[in-house]
């Protein structure tokens, strides 16, 4: 906690975990993250671009904060974990920027195909 007993604005119940072993099981994640409090949900990445990542959602924000503080940089299965608070606003902003660039490119191609300036 910071001064005044208030949590930083990015602190929330959902954690985003990176640099996990591809062989980690959900049970191993529950064992590790469950030490810090009651877990509502764990979602593990299984697609090629999400392997080695997971989301852990706690019932209580203070449990989430403690897990993030203690496990970020923790050596788990010979890999150093990266534990961050899930920030959907940043994720959706990135997706919007990528989507906008793709749409502009498609528009330019359509203009060239149809002879429009």
Main traits of this protein?
117 residues; alpha+beta; four-stranded antiparallel sheet; two-stranded antiparallel ribbon; 3 helices; 39% helix; 21% strand; elongated
Task: Tell me what the structure shows.
This protein has 117 residues and is of the alpha+beta class. It has 3 helices and 6 strands, in the order E-H-E-E-H-E-E-E-H. The chain has helices at residues 26-33, 61-71, 88-114, and strands at residues 14-18, 39-44, 54-58, 75-76, 79-80, 82-85. The strands form 2 sheets. The chain has a 4-stranded antiparallel β-sheet, covered by helices on one side. Strands 4-5 form a two-stranded antiparallel ribbon. The longest helix is centred in the last third of the chain and has 27 residues, at 88-114. The chain is elongated. The relative contact order is 0.18. The mean pLDDT is 86.
Q: Termini separation (Å)?
A: 56 Å
Query: Uncertain segments of ≥5 residues (pLDDT<50)?
Result: none
Q: What is the mean pLDDT?
A: 86
> Radius of gyration from the CA trace?
19 Å
Structural class: alpha+beta
Share of helix, binned: 25-40%
Could you describe the largest sheet, including whether it forms a barrel? 4 strands, antiparallel
